[in-house]
Amino acid sequence: MLNIQSFEFNPFNENTYLLWDVGTKETAIIDPGCYDDFEKSELKNFIEEQNLIPKLLINTHCHIDHILGVSFIKENFNVKYMIPEKDLPLHKNAMSQGQMFGFDLMELPAPDEFISEDKIIKLGGEELQPLFTPGHTAGEYCFYSERNKICITGDVLFHQSIGRTDLWGGDYDTLINSIKTKLLALPDETKIYPGHGIDSTIGTERKQNPFLINI
């Protein structure tokens, strides 16, 4: 069984997720947006209080609000760092992204591995299937657990909204195709955990999301 804990960080109200296997406590830290000392302490204290064992650091994509805490996590925990390969230009320009929005950000640590649909992500006895879902960025991935009926959707699909496509690597038609072929293909009861805002389900978004009604 997987447990999930969300944190809302930074001025963009970005959702950072901890996902862990209940039996082994092996944990994935997904999209660490923690920026100031209070946010970093909140995340670190929760991990320590719950006796979690961080194994993976994963970016669904590499926009500034999702990468602010990457260096902090790598410095404090022995984790494998995974990003989408097609988002490498965003990753390499993290400092420039930061400057655009007033964040003091150092160069990010190099990724240890690129995400691929061919590589199942394992946490103890649990598995996450990466789903390649470009459109918000050129390389974004979502992460689906069939057994636990959950999907981390990053900035691809939100409650009654979808990701922006007016930023670097964004393309509206590509995003809609990703949602249609990868996310709406999941069972209706699948709970989605987006990069911003509240959780929802695939069934709810299929019926009520104004961007998806006519696709």
Q: What does this 3D model show about the protein?
A:
With 215 residues, this protein is an alpha/beta fold. The chain has one domain (2-208): Metallo-beta-lactamase, Chain A (4-Layer Sandwich), CATH 3.60.15. Helix content is 26%, strand content 29%. It has seven helices and 14 strands. The strands form three sheets. It has a six-stranded mixed beta sheet, with helices on one face. A six-stranded mixed beta sheet has the order 7-8-9-10-13-14. A hairpin with a 2-residue loop joins strand 7 (121-123) and strand 8 (126-132). The longest helix has 13 residues, at 37-49. It is globular.
Mean pLDDT over the full residue set: 97
Query: What is the top-level CATH class?
Result: Alpha Beta
How many E strands? 14
Strand content: 25-35%
Q: In the CATH hierarchy, what is the architecture at level 2?
A: 4-Layer Sandwich
Low-pLDDT segments? none
Principal-axis shape equals globular
SSE arrangement, N to C? EEEHEHHEHHEEEEEEEHEEH
Radius of gyration: 16 Å
Instruction: Fill in the CATH topology.
Output: Metallo-beta-lactamase, Chain A
Main sheet attributes: strand count, strand direction, barrel closure: 6 strands, mixed
Number of domains: 1
**Number of helical segments?**
7
Distance between the termini: 34 Å
CATH superfamily: Ribonuclease Z/Hydroxyacylglutathione hydrolase-like
Order of strands across the main sheet? 1-2-3-4-5-6
How helical, in percent, are the residues? 25-40%
SS class: alpha/beta
Cofactor: Zn(2+)
InterPro entries: MBL_Glyoxalase_II, Metallo-B-lactamas, RibonucZ/Hydroxyglut_hydro
Pfam family, one: Lactamase_B
Protein name: Zn-dependent hydrolase
